[in-house]
Amino acid sequence: MKNPFGQQQDSGSYVDLKKRILQRVQSAKINDQIFQVVQRAYENALNTENIVLSRPERTRMFSQILKDVLDDMIKKLDKRSG
């Protein structure tokens, strides 16, 4: 059976495995993809509601909504692992 931790001096290092997996996920630009999905949904919602905001208001509200979406994702993850 292949060692999931790869060829390392400390073959049981969870931290090393986590770092490598995180690097692979980040190289796939997942953060950018999540950001773009939320941004498109935000823009569509504003357009559907016919809401006009100044650029600073638009940016501030998007920031707040993105934070809420990410917080909600973390809560759902916590429920699944708990």
Description:
With 82 residues, this protein is an all-alpha fold. The protein has one domain. The longest helix is centred in the C-terminal third of the chain and has 27 residues. The mean pLDDT is 89.
Global geometry = elongated
Q: Provide mean pLDDT, rounded.
A: 89
Helix fraction bin = over 70%
The main sheet comes to: none
Low-confidence stretches: none
Element string (H = helix, E = strand): HHH
Q: Output the radius of gyration.
A: 19 Å
Question: What key attributes describe this structure?
Answer:
82 residues; mainly alpha; 3 helices; 0% strand; elongated
Strand and helix layout:
Blueprint: H1 14-27, H2 30-49, H3 55-81
Brief summary of the model shown:
The chain is mainly α and 82 residues long.
